[in-house]
Design a protein that fits this description.
2 copies of one chain form a homodimer. With about 325 residues, chain A is an alpha/beta fold. Helices cover about 35% and strands about 20% of the residues of chain A. Chain A has helices at about 5-15, 30-45, 60-65, 80-90, 130-135, 145-160, 165-185, 260-275, 295-310; strands at about 20-25, 50, 95-100, 105-115, 120-125, 140, 190-195, 210-215, 235-245, 250-255, 285-290, 290-295. The first copy, chain A, has an 8-stranded mixed sheet, covered by helices on one side. The first copy, chain A, has a two-stranded antiparallel ribbon with strand order 3-4. A two-stranded antiparallel ribbon of chain A has the order 11-12. In chain A, helix 8 runs parallel beside helix 9 (about 295-310). Chains A and B meet through helix 4, strand 3 and strand 4 of A and helix 4, strand 3 and strand 4 of B.
């Protein structure tokens, strides 16, 4: 963990009003914005601002056609400026952030971002460099199965980004070597790896919400869930002690999407209350799109909310 | 001189590869870009980069129509981001600079600026705040008579910025209170105040180059010109010991535009050689527009070149 010393130095020299930065990294169409949006709404615009680091593209869509790399490549992004801006935000300073218009593929007028108590940073490469990683209190990597990501990407890019299905498939093929080289390796720097997927071997109806598997690495102090998760909740959620890909011990939280919604809600209330919060969990959590909800997403966001509020204390 | 302590602190803690920043401040159409351009060409793109801080406009031309202030007003500019970027450049770091397109009045895609050995910063408000002033080794304010500035502004804005003469005149009137409140007061923070103007009482032909009056404030160490300026050069150039508007002693260098070009060239060579440079002064100095030259401009630029090279030693 090479970042630890830097993080500790930062913590030790911190003023009290330093913002808390959360990174949500992952490949294109892995659900980063959906995850971020629920948290942002739960905290409210007074306390929270989101930044997408894909805005730091060095070349626009037209220019990229003449390059032999894609938008995923670090050389296609102002990584040094991204690092600089993350450091500025982490030390409480405003930035004039570049803006990439996904609907047209053009780089347009930049916008002022003033840090709030919480800054959610999402994108393709927020964990790519040591200096960028040192700016975050909590880091998340989203890692759905590739076939699910493909479905999500086609659905989004054909409706919101002006591509057709054939173009999206071709792009996924072109991007694969760079995903493997630059995006997926960031997974090893995440405190929490989140995988939304169906449970293998089950024959659930097609509109069953995906389950979530959250690998909780010991790089940050997770809440003690062993007391919260009563045996009666076992069907909706359970912790499993396993080993990380490098052999280190790790807890994995399994959150099942197929259980009746009431069971999930009981779990959510228990977690919310165990985190010392009164009342119901924020209703903005768990929303996938207007009217469509996922209880495993709610529980994922609840856990992140815990870490944000804990880091800000 | 409230900046001095900051400047000294900066000098004391400086690494050796810190860029030298020169500020050229002044109202709209006072010749800032012309002055900067000759210096930039003399130093070459490997050693020198220019930045216009008018790019830090907060509102574009369309949006400004709904505001009750003009582009000169600090509230119409991201002053805090300008300060931040000047500090980054002064400490040798790159910036992603906003870009204001003067021909359309739109804010467009930002551009990467990597500091060079010399960074020339020109614009309306580079000396507006204490923090921005502390970033510069040398500061210049351009202060031509108002009727000359008006002629220059009409000539430029009607050919390059899409305005007609009536609009320019109306704009000058609208802007006057803000010029008085925010632009002209920066003059008091300049190490060198430059005034291009005809000599009162002379009846020179209309195409006679303007003379230059350079107030050399003791806020920086100017070269000793008393030895260079031989009595035979008196007609082309002379120093005059006077008092600043606040009563402090100051040297004023008078450079006459009406003398034969050969006399000016002799002076230029003498200054160039006194500055320890061999050969002819750079031919890019003194150019007002393609084919049109001013020897007083050459001498002004020579003096600034001296300060830049001296500060970089």
């Amino acid at each position: 963990m090479p970042d630890k010393a830097i993080r500790m130095t930062r913590a030790a020299t911190d003023g009290r009003n330093r913002p808390v930065l959360l990174a949500i990294a992952g490949d294109s169409a892995t659900g980063k914005t959906t995850l971020a949006h629920g948290l942002e709404r739960a905290l409210g615009p007074e306390r929270c601002v989101s930044v997408c680091v894909d805005d730091y593209h060095r070349y626009d869509r037209q220019e990229r056609k003449t390059k032999d790399f894609t938008a995923l490549h670090p050389d296609c992004n102002y990584i040094d400026i991204m690092e600089q801006h993350l450091q500025l935000l982490a030390t409480g300073q405003p930035i004039l952030k570049p803006v990439y218009d996904h609907s047209t593929g053009e780089l347009i007028r930049p916008e002022l971002v003033e840090p709030r108590e919480f800054v959610i940073v999402e994108g393709l490469l927020p964990l790519f460099t040591k200096l960028s990683r040192a700016c975050f209190e909590v880091t998340v990597f989203l890692n759905p199965p590739e076939d699910i990501r493909r479905t999500w990407k086609i659905a989004r890019d054909t409706t919101k980004r002006g591509y057709d299905e054939e173009q999206v498939n071709a792009e996924l093929t072109t991007r694969e070597p760079e995903s493997a080289a630059f995006i997926r390796p960031q997974q090893s720097f995440a405190d929490i790896v989140v995988r939304f997927a169906p449970i293998p071997g089950r024959d659930d109806p097609p509109d069953t919400p995906l389950s979530a598997e959250l690998m909780l690495r010991p790089t940050i102090r997770h809440p003690d869930l062993t007391g919260v998760l009563a045996p009666t909740m076992q069907r909706a959620i359970h912790l499993k002690l396993t080993r990380d890909s490098d052999g280190r011990p790790v807890d994995t939280l399994h959150v099942h999407g197929y259980v009746p919604i009431e069971e999930s809600r009981t779990v959510q209330k228990a977690i919310w209350s165990a985190l010392g919060r009164a009342g119901e969990p924020p209703s903005s959590l768990g929303e996938l799109s207007p009217g469509k909800r996922s209880e495993p997403m709610t529980i994922t966001q609840l856990l992140l909310l815990y870490h944000l509020l804990d880091a800000a204390r």
